[in-house]
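Hi W.,

Here's what went into the run:
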Amino acid sequence: MKPVTFVLRLVLVIAALLVVLPLVWTLLNAFKTNADLLVSTPKLIFTPVWDNMEYVLNRRSVARALVNSLVICGWAVVLGAVLGVPAAYVIARVKNRITQEAQFFALSLRFLPPVAVAIPMMVIWLGLGLYDSRVALIITYMTITVSITIWLSIPAFERVPLAIEEAARVDRLGPYATFFRIALPVAKLQVLSAIAFSFILVWNEFLLAMMLTTSRAKTLPIIASEMSQLGMSVPWGILNAAVVLLSLPPLILLALVGAGLNSAFSAKTSQE
Amino acid sequence: MATVECSGLRKCYGSHEVIRDFNLSIADHEFVVFLGPSGCGKSTLLRMIAGLEDITGGDLLIGGTRVNDNDPGERGIAMVFQNYALYPHMSVRQNITFALERAGDSKERIAKRLAPVVESLGLDVYLDRKPTELSGGQQQRVAIARAMIKTPEVFLFDEPLSNLDAKLRGHLRVEIARLHKTLKSTSIYVTHDQLEAMTLADRIVLMYQGRIEQMGTPEEIYSRPATLFAAGFIGTPNMNFITFTVQEGRLRDGTLDLPAPEGVTGHVTLGIRPGAVEVLDAPAHDAIPAVVERDEFHGETRLVALTCGVQGLMAAIPAARKLHEGQNLFIRFPSQSLHYFNTDTGRRL
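Here's what came out:
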């Protein structure tokens, strides 16, 4: 191995460790007793215990927050996809002033700091009597999922060669059939990745959820953060267990669509 | 049955007119090739006939019916694209039968029509593969099969062989010619390759800058090019052009002095194909002295660059005849092989 290659590999390994180690640490700590946790030399070998997980899973607030998170994120993502994917297709295929503005508008939804969105949203939902409801959070989250789905699906549809859509037109397909039978199946993987990414964003969302819920519609990130306020001493094991649970759904999604997600973000074109 | 009639077709992008007043009528069973350099509007025109580009003005009739505003699927056409345009998520079989399924044909009927198409193109073994698993030539065969199975009234080919290597191009060209004969449909074929045009066409429509430069059988265009552009575009190696001024009924350029055709004045461009130039070793009647500049071996023939006076020109001679650089010899232009053009208008005289 050349010295240069070796150094570059080393840099990569260090970078990888920087990312992976804290995650592994969290995972290990989730299964430790407080006695194993609170020692000056971190223990790698210990007897794993299920206590922390059990505590987290058995709390009624966690169960309710899990349902809330699934329902709210699920609906926000589904509605975001139903609205965003066809919109992205139109923006990718019809190039004019209006669609260009629409594309920029979709992105600009993400420019504002969340707190600037949260306060007016709070006022609106309070006024409508929907504050601290799932509906309020679903609609608020939709602004995130729609814009992300649109923004990431546009390149996916742009990569579908125009000629195959023209071939479809010659094969007697109308615009809707062309979208559902040709463009969508061809761009499937990247579009799914865009949707998955929008799910991850809202699943992890904290600030809006905190400002727009007080009890009934609380989501998992809120409950997880509350675990750190359980008492005088920080319950490290429980906190870690909550983090592990919270990270599982996005990680599973990432594993499923990781490849597609990568190509959704890179600017390479598959054909020509 | 399936004639194609273009009368006064126009295409504008904004205020930019790319095709103006295009008139052409294509007979049933005819194989017409649109030939021209890139950007001459030939593909745009084909796409207008296909219905993939809007028609700005004029009338397009297929089989006697005006189809200007019909969708591509309702024009009775099938199209083969340059980059194949196969559906990547479908198998070869699905690609070919997709249009029939859309039209609601029964499974038995589709199977019955699929068999001969697949057989004639040798695609039997690939039916269950995805297009990406096939080579370029096979992919284009699938695309042709997809067009064939629809038994269209008009076949449209948009540079179908341009993405293939030379050898495959030759094979598929022969196949397309054979298919056209057996299917007896009307075909319109766009290409920038004159060899494809010459070998396939019943009639070539030579296009330049959005209009028809010349129209005729390959022989007609080759032997009687109507314009300087047609003369220069058709034929390999390229035709020699020598520009003269007409003085006292003679063509002169300072050193050369040739008899002029009657009634010609002003500037005249003389065209002669390299193969028609006679190369002589000894002086003869009407022969002009020339010097060998360069000698290119082309296999069967040898292409010789000659200088005569201030002019340079190419002559094609049998490869067996060897000339050396700097050699002095004589050339003669047989009068039946000469093409005269008005230098200013570019028209044939």
